[in-house]
C-alpha cells in the first residue's frame, strides 16, 4: 500500500471518524429496452401510466422511445438502492401489458433504422430540446446505438471527509483551498485512479461478449460468427464498451484531461463550441425540421461518452458544466457497467459492495497527474480488457512493463482488501469482504466471470436473441409474480400523476419559440472564467 492509503485508512479506522463512511451516498440508473412478447423492439409510446418521461425523476427514457431508464434516489446503503430499483421494476410491469424489459446491455434483434423511434418528451421547448438532441445523436451515430443499455453507478462521499483527509496529509488549514475546490480536486483525483484501474471492472463485471448480427448495420468489424444471427469474440468481456459503441471520427482524439476540473471543463467546452465540417454540411434543419441542435463536435457536453464523469445536480435551466463551474463536483458517475443479465434489476448487491470498496480505494490512494502518453496506455488497457479480458495470455501495460492481467488483478484486489475491511468494521459484518471473495474467484477462474457465463448460456440457447428472450421472460415472471404492496403502488401512481401535471404546466408556460430557445441555449455563457 502507498503511504497515503495506509495513513488515510488508519485515520478512518479510528472510532472518532469511522461513521463518516456510512454517510456516503450511492444510486443506480438502469437502462433497458421495452420489447414485445417475441423479444423484438416495442413500437408503442412510453407507457403513460408510468408518468412523464420529461418530469418523472425515477422513470424516464434515454435515447430511443423504447429505451426506459430507472433512476433510484441516492441512499447510504446499496441494499436500499437495489430495493428501490426492484420496486420501480415492479411498478413499471403493472403498466407494460404484454411487453417486457430486455435483460441485456446489447439490444434485441432490431428493425430498420426508420422503425426505431427517437424518444419524445412532449411539446415544451425543453422537451423538444431533448428530442432534437437525440435526433442529432441518430444522425451522428445511427439509431441502433440508441438502443444500447447500461448501468450507471452514482457515488459520493460526505463533505466532511475531504478536509479531514487533508489534515491527515499534513496540509495546514491556512494553506487549504475552499471546501468546494478541495472536494472537486479530490473527486478529479478519484477519477484519475479510476482511469488507471477501470479495466478491472470490465474483467469482473463485463457481460456483453456477443451481440445480434443486425446491430452492426454493415459496419466493419473483427467479430466472429457464433451462430447465424450472433457475433462474438472468444475472450471478450464487454463489446458494449469496445470501439463498437458510441464513437465516431468527430470525437476521435477528444480526451478531456482530468488533472483539474478546469482542464476537464475547458476540453469539453472546446468541443461544444467547435464546428465540425461534416456536421455543418448536414445543417441543423431539413425541410424546416430541426435535425440537430448545432453542427459542433458535441451538441452538448453530455454527448461525450465517457466511462466516468464528474457530476453536480443541476438547477432548472442550467447546463451540466455550468453547475460544475458554479458549485464544483458533487459526485461521480460510473458509466461503464453492463447490465447483469442474471439479475432481475440488472445489478446485484454484491456488485455494489465491491464498487463501493473500489471507488473508496480510488479516492483514498495516491493519484498522480496523468500525462498524454499515460492516458493512451490506460485507454489501451481498457480496450484490451473489453475485447480479450479472459485470454490467458493477455498482458496489460503497467509503467514500463507488460504484466499478465490476472496477476495485476490479484495484486489490485489485495490493495483494495483493507478498504473492504474498513467498510465492514462499522457495519459489524463481512459484506464487503465477501464481495471481494467473489471477485478473487473470478480472477482465479475466468469461467466464473459474467462474460464467460453469458457466452456459455448463448451457446446452449443457440443464439444471443434466444438467450436474451429466455432471461427476459424469467425476469418478467419474477416481477409479475410478486406485486407491490398497496401503499407502494399508491406512491408510484401519485408520482406518475404529478409528473404528467408538471409536464403540462411546463408546456403551458413557454413564452418564446423553439428556434429562439435553441439559440439561447447554444449561446449560453457556460463558465465565466473559461475561455474557448
From TrEMBL:
Gene3D superfamilies: 3.30.590.20
Catalytic class of the enzyme: ligase
One GO term (biological process): glutathione biosynthetic process
EC number of this enzyme: 6.3.2.2
GO MF annotation list: ATP binding; glutamate-cysteine ligase activity; metal ion binding
Catalytic activity: L-cysteine + L-glutamate + ATP = gamma-L-glutamyl-L-cysteine + ADP + phosphate + H(+)
The protein's annotated pathway: Sulfur metabolism; glutathione biosynthesis; glutathione from L-cysteine and L-glutamate: step 1/2
Cellular component annotations (GO), alphabetically ordered: cytosol
Keyword Ligase: yes
Swiss-Prot/TrEMBL keywords: ATP-binding, Glutathione biosynthesis, Ligase, Nucleotide-binding
Segments forming domain Glutamate--cysteine ligase: 10-382
Pfam families to which the protein is assigned, alphabetical: Glu_cys_ligase
Family named by the database record: Belongs to the glutamate--cysteine ligase type 1 family. Type 1 subfamily.
Protein name: Glutamate--cysteine ligase
Organism of origin: Zemynaea arenosa
Gene: gshA
Amino acid at each position: 500500500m502507498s503511504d497515503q492509503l495506509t495513513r488515510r485508512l488508519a485515520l478512518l479506522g479510528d472510532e472518532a471518524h469511522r461513521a463518516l463512511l456510512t454517510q456516503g451516498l450511492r444510486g443506480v440508473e438502469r437502462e433497458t429496452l421495452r420489447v414485445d412478447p417475441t423479444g423484438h423492439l416495442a413500437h408503442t409510446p412510453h407507457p403513460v401510466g408510468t408518468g412523464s418521461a420529461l418530469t418523472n425523476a425515477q422513470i424516464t427514457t434515454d435515447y430511443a422511445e423504447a429505451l426506459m431508464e430507472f433512476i433510484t434516489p441516492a441512499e447510504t446503503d446499496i441494499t436500499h438502492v437495489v430495493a428501490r430499483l426492484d420496486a420501480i421494476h415492479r411498478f413499471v410491469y403493472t403498466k407494460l401489458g404484454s411487453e417486457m424489459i430486455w435483460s441485456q446491455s446489447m439490444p434485441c434483434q432490431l428493425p430498420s433504422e426508420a422503425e426505431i423511434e427517437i424518444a419524445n418528451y412532449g411539446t415544451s421547448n425543453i422537451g423538444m430540446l431533448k428530442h432534437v438532441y437525440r435526433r442529432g445523436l441518430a444522425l451522428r451515430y445511427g439509431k441502433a446505438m440508441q438502443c444500447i443499455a447500461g448501468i450507471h453507478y452514482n457515488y459520493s462521499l460526505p463533505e466532511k471527509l475531504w478536509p479531514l483527509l487533508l489534515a491527515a496529509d499534513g496540509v495546514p488549514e491556512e494553506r487549504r483551498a475552499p471546501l468546494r475546490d478541495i472536494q472537486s480536486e479530490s473527486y478529479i483525483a478519484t477519477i484519475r485512479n479510476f482511469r488507471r484501474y477501470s479495466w478491472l471492472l470490465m474483467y469482473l463485471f463485463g457481460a456483453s461478449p456477443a451481440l445480434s448480427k443486425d446491430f452492426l448495420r454493415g459496419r466493419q468489424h473483427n467479430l466472429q460468427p457464433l451462430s447465424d444471427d450472433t457475433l462474438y469474440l472468444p475472450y471478450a468481456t464487454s463489446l458494449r464498451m469496445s470501439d463498437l459503441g458510441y464513437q465516431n471520427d468527430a470525437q476521435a482524439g477528444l480526451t478531456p484531461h482530468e488533472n483539474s476540473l478546469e482542464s476537464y471543463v475547458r476540453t469539453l467546452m472546446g468541443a461544444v463550441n467547435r464546428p465540425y465540417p461534416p456536421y455543418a454540411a448536414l445543417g441543423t434543419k431539413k425541410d424546416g425540421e430541426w435535425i440537430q441542435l448545432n453542427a459542433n463536435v458535441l451538441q452538448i457536453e453530455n454527448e461525450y461518452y465517457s466511462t466516468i464523469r464528474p457530476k453536480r445536480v443541476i438547477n432548472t435551466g442550467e447546463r451540466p458544466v455550468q453547475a460544475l463551474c458554479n458549485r464544483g463536483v458533487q459526485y461521480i458517475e460510473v458509466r461503464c457497467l453492463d447490465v447483469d443479465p442474471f439479475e432481475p434489476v440488472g445489478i446485484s448487491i454484491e456488485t455494489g459492495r465491491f464498487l463501493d470498496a473500489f471507488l473508496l480505494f480510488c479516492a483514498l490512494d495516491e493519484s498522480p497527474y496523468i500525462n498524454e502518453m499515460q492516458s493512451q496506455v490506460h485507454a489501451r488497457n481498457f480496450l484490451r480488457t473489453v475485447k480479450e479480458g479472459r485470454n490467458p495470455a493477455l498482458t496489460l501495460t503497467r509503467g514500463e512493463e507488460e504484466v499478465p492481467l490476472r496477476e495485476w488483478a490479484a495484486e489490485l484486489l489485495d490493495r483494495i482488501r483493507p478498504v473492504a475491511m474498513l467498510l465492514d468494521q462499522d457495519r459489524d459484518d463481512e459484506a464487503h469482504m465477501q464481495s471481494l471473495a467473489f471477485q478473487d474467484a473470478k480472477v482465479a477462474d475466468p469461467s466464473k466471470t459474467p462474460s464467460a457465463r453469458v457466452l456459455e448460456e448463448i451457446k446452449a440457447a443457440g443464439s444471443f436473441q434466444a438467450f436474451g428472450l429466455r432471461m427476459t421472460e424469467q425476469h418478467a415472471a419474477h416481477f409479475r409474480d410478486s406485486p407491490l404492496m398497496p401503499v407502494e403502488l399508491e406512491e408510484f401512481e401519485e408520482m406518475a400523476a404529478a409528473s404528467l401535471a408538471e409536464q403540462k404546466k411546463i408546456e403551458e408556460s413557454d413564452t418564446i419559440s423553439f428556434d429562439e430557445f435553441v439559440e439561447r441555449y447554444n449561446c449560453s455563457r457556460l463558465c465565466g472564467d473559461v475561455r474557448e
